[in-house]
Amino acid sequence: MLFFLAGCSERPEPGISALQSQHGAHRLADRMPKVVPYLDCVPSRVDGQGSAVAEPLCPMPAGSRRDFKITFTVGEAGVVPGGFVMLQVSPWWGWTAPQRHSPKRPGFVEVSTSFADPSLKVHVLPANRILVTSEKRAFAPEEKIIFGYGNGVRVDKFAEAEELFQIFVDADGDGHSACIVAPPTLRIEAGSPAEVAVSVPPIIRSGDEVTVRFAPLDGLGNWGTFPEGKYQVRVNRDGHCVEEVVLEARGGEKAIPFQFANTDEGVYFITVDGPSGLRGKSNVMLSQAGEPGLRLYFGDIHGHSRISDGTGTPEDFYRYAKMVSGLDIAALTDHADHGTIRVEGKVWERITKAANEAYRPGEFVTFVGFEWTNWEYGHRNVYYRDGNGPVFSSLDERSRTPGKLWKLLEPYEAMTIAHHVGGGPVATNWEMVPGPREWLVEICSIHGSSEYYGAEACIYRPVKGAFVRDALRRGYRLGIIGSGDTHDGHPGRRTVGAVVSGLLGVYSPELTREAVWEAFRRRHVYATSGPKIVLNFRVADAPMGSEVKWAGTKGPIPVALRALGCEDIKAIEIIRDGETVCRAKGESVFALFSWKDAEPLTGTHWYYARVVQKDGNMAWSSPVWVTVE
Predict the structure, then answer these.
(1) What DSSP character marks residue 496?
(2) What pLDDT, on the 0 to 100 scale, is given for residue 405?
């Protein structure tokens, strides 16, 4: 398998697999050289030599149209007859597919050279690859191959600091290739702003000063700059405006600072209105008296960059999570085993460095992670608590199964989380018992809900028996989280066109790696389908994620819930052992709910809560396991 065409959302296109595994008759017909998939390559010392420049390289708006010329200069080793030079245009996120059959249509490819060679062949391969080879003539050092890629090529629809025109060189003709050291990079910028993202802390102590984050976004969520002008900010408490301020943006600003200190107890929303109809509304914020024992933090710990099949750089991933989405916790989890770039060596060092440099104890927590992308057992993300650890691929026999992976992770403070478990790209095989440090499961992401078969916003290609409730019924004690699995470089925000997304809420005494990790281990977490819904859930006087004993002589088991929605709450449900045992209607953004299980069953049973907003967004608590004695 070469790589995904649609990121983690689909399996690789069948044509790619056929191309990689059935070279025989097709190659004999057109004499195309052997092409080993990128991640299977074992390059020789001479592969990957050469340099390239691209025109134009000026910043350009996302989704705009351009014509490109990429000039490759052959390296010192040259390229033997039967070797190849291959241009890889990004196969993701809107790039026009290269083609040679219609000179007047976008993406038309013309190849010229600084030398004459009648035997030169040009092949346009699946996944936006353009291969140049010669059966009879070598490419000599300093000779040039010029790729014309034009007629109004549409570029990536998402902002991208380092979009790549990768060039792979097989210098010795064995089918193995390597990318040149410094491929040309292109900067793609956000379009005109269409909305303002506004974020505030979910819970504060009354009297605290609050910092509000504003970020201008175009129609696809790309972070741009504010148009010059005045912006009216309103602080609304319990449905009434209690403060109004006019802020002014100057040209090129990506953020406008704003703080306010009048934070009496109540439920807050912050709104902003600016030039040209720009508007934004914050998540809900609760101000309450007293010092909480645990604080609520929001995070997105599943997303991808251009290093695998996403958009953007690792560094920009963390900047967006913090400055745009207002997250407290984030982790980039690029595929270790799919994409056009090997996640190893300096690439893995860059991923690790980006996470560690973004980490600010007390302010912003990051974890080093990667995705183990296995098509037999399901996909799992791997996380390291202490900011370092190795990367393992499911393509490597040593780490091909979950059991082998967990064994290799034993020397490290590491955990794994299964995601899109109910279906989608691939369902999780729950016949394999979760490892000893698989404490959590992802219930929701851009692929849909994996709560149960037939659930609202259910994941596509659902597989019966693979859902979160199915895992819980097997006796697996897993806390519930949501995360985005975004590939657009926008952690913490729903990808345009996705039905839902995912966030996790974490209750922790402080915002450090160690404290958040311990909260993960204790399963003091919950999930939302995207909004920062505030949820607190207790059963038998124990918080979500707990395992407790309850004497039957004590009578009914108490269940309590408090929720704050970012929109009005429609319904609250209590699920016991996979069945809804209590349902109540919501009336506003605030819900305070209590119930008693008057007929507790003997043995061990699990309870969790789901909160549904009127706009269809949801939150799910982690279960509480109660053993009735």
Answers:
(1) T
(2) 97
Q: Which amino acid is at 241?
A: C
Proportion of the chain above pLDDT 70, given as a percent:
95
What are the two backbone dihedrals, phi and then psi, of residue 518, each rounded to the nearest 5 degrees?
Answer: -65, -35
110-125 confidence digits (pLDDT tens): 999 999 999 999 999 9
Q: Which residues pair with 449 in a beta bridge?
A: 444, 458
What's the whole-model pTM score? 0.94
Predicted confidence at residue 11, as pLDDT, reads 40
Given a contact cutoff of 8 angstroms between Cβ atoms, the answer to whether 620 and 443 are in contact is: yes
Q: What is the pLDDT of residues 503-516, one digit of tens each?
A: 999 999 999 999 99
Instruction: Report the chain's mean pLDDT, rounded to a whole number.
Output: 93
Check if the beta carbon of residue 329 is closer than 8 Å to that of residue 520: no
**How many residues make up the chain in this entry?**
629
For residue 25, name the pLDDT band (cuts at 50, 70, 90).
very low
Distances (CA, A) of 121 to 107, 133, 134: 18, 5, 6
Q: How many whole angstroms from its chain centre is CA 165?
A: 23
pLDDT digits (tens, 9 = 90+) for 365-380: 999 999 999 999 999 9
The pLDDT, as a whole number, for residue 30 is: 57
The distance from CA 456 to its chain's CA centroid, rounded to whole angstroms, is 22
Compute the distance between CA of residue 308 and CA of residue 608 in angstroms, rounded to an integer: 35
Q: Which domains does the chain have, with CATH numbers?
A: 7-189 (2.60.40), 195-289 (2.60.40.10), 296-532 (3.20.20.140), 533-629 (2.60.40.10)
Q: What is the mean pLDDT of residues 255-268?
A: 93
Distance, in Å, from the CA atom of 371 to the CA atom of 381, rounded to the nearest integer, reads 4
Distance CA 123, CA 109 (A): 10
**3-class DSSP state for residue 629?**
coil
Contact 16, 4 (CB under 8 A): no
Is residue 433 within 8 A of residue 476, CB to CB? The reply is yes
Cβ partners under 8 Å of residue 147, min gap 6: 68, 69, 70, 71, 72, 87, 109, 110, 111, 130
Cβ–Cβ under 8 Å, residues 130 and 86: yes
What is the signed CA dihedral for 317, 521, 419, 318, rounded to 10 degrees?
A: 0
Give the model's confidence band at 528: pLDDT under 50 very low, under 70 low, under 90 confident, else very high.
Answer: very high
Model pLDDT, residue 171: 98
DSSP, residue by residue, 316-375:
HHHHHHHHTS--SEE----BSSSSSS--SHHHHHHHHHHHHHH-BTTTBEE-EEEEEEET
Other Cβ atoms less than 10 A from the Cβ of 15: the count is 12
Confirm if 514 and 448 have CB atoms less than 8 A apart. Answer: no
**Angle at Cα 470 formed by Cα 467 and Cα 476, nearest 5°?**
110
Are the CB atoms for 495 and 502 separated by under 8 Å?
A: no
Angle subtended at Cα 450 by Cα 448 and Cα 454, rounded to the nearest 5 degrees: 90
Q: What is the pLDDT of residues 336-366, one digit of tens each?
A: 998 999 999 999 999 999 999 999 999 999 9
Helix axes 314-323, 345-358, angle to 10 degrees: 20
Q: How far is CA 27 from the centre of its chain?
A: 37
